[in-house]
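Quick start: what a row looks like.
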Amino acid sequence: MDDLTLSGVALAALIVLLLLRVPVGVALGGVSFVGIWIMIGPGSAWGILTAVPYDFIAHWSLSAVPMFLLMGYVCYHSQLTDGLFQVARRWLSWMPGGLAVASIGAAAGFSAVTGSSLACAAAMGRIAIPEMLASKYDKGLASGTVAAAGTIGSLIPPSIILLLYGIYAELPISKLFMAGVGPGLLTALLYAIMIIMRVKITPMLAPPEHEQVTWAQRFDAFRGTWPVIVLIIGVFGGLFGGVFTPTEAGAVGAFLAFVIGFAQRKLTLEKIRLAFLETLLSTGAIFVIAIGAVLLTRFLALSGFTSFIADLVITGQVNATLMILGTMTVLLFLGCFLDPIGIMLLTLPVFLPAVEALHIDPIWYGVLMIKLLEIGLITPPVGLNVFVIKGIVGDSIPTETIFKGILWFIVADIVTVGLMIAFPWISLYLPSLLG
């Protein structure tokens, strides 16, 4: 068996393992190790297994991953972002479906202090869903809104998945962060428009609010958002102002979150323990998947598979349109079964050589990829955000009701993807301002 055929067999075996629910990191690393063993012998395989993971994990930029995660978990457990929903509610409740629209706005704000879609969905679900149910909102609309709103956390910086993409593809993290802002805000806007249109057509989905809110109350609500404002200014003001690097920004954000939490007397030893524990568990899971992906990349390079993909593109058998359609098909399919980080690190070794050969802007492609992975967070049967919301609402809302409530948001996401492809400047305008 020649090396190229071996790589094809290995990829097929990887797909089978994933369908059998083998953890993504284990499947990636195991297939790569066995493939290298067969191809160049056990000595080289063990040498690569001992050297490559350390070389990757020792990458200084990766230290931003646990720091941004820690910042988000500290904000979540100390409830520093609860004021966001109250501001959005007081300013947006007059709209049709105002509480649902407010949930979208609050989620977009919370996304600026956490890089995790799951944490964003959990935080907003704890606050917004009880408010909507108390106001007699349709259960599918209430739960589906928050599950979908959580996905905005993958685009608006600091996004953990964008950070990992930048490290893997060797791209400027600050430009990637800026590239995610436009699509993130566009997603929030289209979600809000869709909610308003649905409620206009079917008013029973969201009875109108009768609470009279004065202008003084609207402005007074901003007092509860100062922790988020301080974090955003401290982290992103310093980052884009050139005071510190994206790697250092994570540590600054985590430090500020602790300071604010202690200043408000909302941080207890138990909350600190939970924040550190969840940070460690999330970081460990991400790094195991990342190590497996790096080993797969090394195996595919040694087998000549990456060169084969690049040559296939150069000879004209694949064009940019076909590449984008292929990306969409693969990511949306895998999104039904796997977590976004696993999908991204699984497919990048195959996709990136083609992206480079076709001269597709890697920053635009990365943001498009993340947007497609976002959709996977809310698609059945394994929509992770849906199950986060299910854990919050318990038996009061059936899982199938949440998935039904998600469907219109998936339609809005598809429109967003179409606009991103038709108008690349949505992603690229802000990064261009950085030079």
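That is the whole record. The mean pLDDT is 83. The two ends are 49 Å apart (CA to CA).
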